[in-house]
Design a protein that fits this description.
Layout lengths: L1 E5 L4 H12 L3 E5 L19 E3 L6 H6 L6 E4 L13 H21 L6 E6 L7 E4 L3 E3 L6 H5 L15 E3 L12 H20 L3 E6 L1 E3 L12 H10 L5 E3 L5 E2 L1 E3 H13 L5 E5 L5 E2 H12 L7 E4 L14 H7 L7 H8 L18
Parallel strand pairs: 1-2, 1-4, 2-3, 4-5, 5-9, 9-14, 10-13, 11-16
Antiparallel strand pairs: 6-7, 6-8, 12-15
Helix pairs in contact: 1-7, 3-5, 6-8, 8-10
C-alpha cells in the first residue's frame, strides 16, 4: 500500500509514518512545517519516506502528490485551546480550509481509497454523566460564577444534584465547547461527506489525551502533558488548574500510531472510534506521575485553582468499539508511559519556516 500522511512530520503523524514503513508500506508525507509547531525540519525525518513541504489547502500541490496513492491518513491540524479567541481564523484556516483543500484534490483525482481522519475527543464537549434521579443527562457549559466560587463539577440540569461521570461512547451527541473543538467536528463532517459521495471508506479516530516523544515543548498549543513536562524539565512545579480532579484518558502515541495503521489496513465504511487507554486518571495524578519520573528531587505539582472557560471537567472514553472493529487495545500502561515520557525528547516549536512551507 502507498499511503499519504498529512502532517506526517508532526507529533502523531510522524509515529504513524514510522509504523506504516515498519509494516512494509510505502509512505508519502505532506507537511508545511508550521513555525508554531516546528523549529525547522525535525531530526527524526526518515530517508526512506517522500516528504513534500506542501500546505494541504493548496489543491494543485496536493494533487501533484497523489499519484499512485492507495490510502490517506489525515493528521494535519492546529491543536489545543490556543491563546485567545483571535486564534479562531488560524484554526479554521488550518483545520477546516486545509481539510477542504485536501478533499477537493482527492475529488479531482477520483480517489476512492480508504481515509483515516485524526479527530479528537474535544468534539464531545463534556463527557457522559449520570444523575441518580434522571439517568444520563447532558450538563450545559459551566457557569463563570460557579467556577469563580470553585464549584467545578457539572450539576444535573434538571435537579441540580451531583453527577457521576461515565465513559463516553462514540454515539454520544457532539457538543464542541471551544474553537478547536468546533473545527475538529467540521473536519469530521467534511471527510464523512466525501466518503459518502465517493464510496470511500472513512474511519474517524477520536483521540483522547495523546502524549509521548516528539510532542512540541514550551507552547500554549501543546497538550497538558507536554506543558507539565516542560515545566518539570525547567525545574518548575507543574501548575494544575481547578482542583486537579479533572478526569482524562491519557493514551500513548505508540498506541495511537498502531490504531491508525490498523484502520488503514482494515478499512471500515463510515466508522467512528474512540482512541484511548480505557483507564482514566485525573490531571493531578498525571502531573504527579510525571514528577515521579523526574526523580525524588523534582518539584511537586501545585494545585493553583483558576480555570479556562473552554475547558471541560471530565471526558474519558469507552474503548469497546475500537476493540470490536479493529481488535485494538492500548498496550502502554499509564505509569510506564509517564515514566518514559519524563525522559522523552520533545520538539522545539520555535523557529522560522523551512523551505517552501508558507508561514
Amino acid at each position: 500500500m502507498r499511503a499519504l500522511v498529512t502532517g506526517g512530520a508532526g507529533f502523531i503523524g510522524s509515529h504513524v509514518v514510522d509504523d506504516l514503513v515498519e509494516r512494509g508500506h510505502e509512505v508519502r508525507v505532506l507537511d508545511r512545517l508550521h513555525p508554531g509547531a516546528h523549529g525547522g525540519a525535525p531530526p527524526y525525518l526518515r530517508d526512506d519516506v517522500d516528504y513534500r513541504l506542501v500546505d494541504v489547502a493548496d489543491v494543485d500541490a496536493v494533487r501533484a502528490a497523489l499519484s499512485g496513492v492507495d490510502a490517506v491518513s489525515h493528521q494535519a491540524a492546529m491543536v489545543g485551546l490556543g491563546v485567545e479567541f483571535a486564534d479562531a481564523t488560524q484554526y479554521v484556516r488550518d483545520n477546516d480550509l486545509g481539510t477542504a483543500g485536501l478533499l477537493v484534490a482527492l475529488h479531482r483525482e477520483h480517489f476512492r481509497g480508504p481515509i483515516v481522519l485524526g479527530s479528537s475527543m474535544v468534539v464531545y464537549g463534556e463527557g457522559r454523566y449520570r444523575c441518580d434521579e434522571h439517568g444520563v443527562v447532558r450538563p450545559g457549559p459551566r457557569a463563570r460564577e460557579h467556577l469563580d466560587r470553585g464549584e467545578f463539577e457539572p450539576r444535573c440540569p434538571t435537579c441540580g444534584r451531583d453527577l457521576t461521570g461515565e465513559p463516553v461512547p462514540e454515539d454520544a451527541p457532539a457538543d464542541p465547547r471551544n474553537v478547536y473543538a468546533a473545527t475538529k467536528l467540521h473536519q469530521e463532517h467534511l471527510v464523512q461527506s466525501y466518503g459518502r459521495e465517493h464510496a470511500s471508506s472513512v474511519t474517524t479516530l477520536r483521540y483522547h489525551n495523546v502524549y509521548g516523544p516528539r510532542m512540541p515543548r514550551d507552547t500554549p498549543y501543546a497538550g497538558v502533558a507536554s506543558i507539565f513536562r516542560s515545566a518539570l524539565a525547567g525545574g518548575l512545579a507543574p501548575r494544575v488548574f481547578e482542583d486537579g480532579g479533572q478526569r482524562r484518558d491519557f493514551v500513548h502515541v505508540h498506541d495511537v500510531a498502531r490504531v491508525n495503521c490498523l484502520a488503514l489496513e482494515r478499512a471500515e465504511s463510515e466508522c467512528v472510534l474512540n482512541v484511548a487507554s480505557g483507564t482514566p486518571h485525573t490531571v493531578l495524578e498525571m502531573a504527579q506521575a510525571l514528577a515521579r519520573g523526574f526523580g525524588p528531587d523534582a518539584p511537586l505539582p501545585e494545585v493553583v485553582g483558576g480555570y479556562r472557560l473552554g475547558d471541560v471537567r471530565h471526558v474519558f472514553a469507552s474503548t469497546r468499539r475500537a476493540e470490536e472493529v479493529l481488535g485494538f487495545t492500548a498496550a502502554v500502561g499509564f505509569e510506564a508511559g509517564m515514566a518514559a515520557f519524563s525522559h522523552d525528547s520533545l520538539r522545539d516549536p520555535a523557529g522560522p519556516a523551512v523551505g517552501s512551507a508558507p508561514p
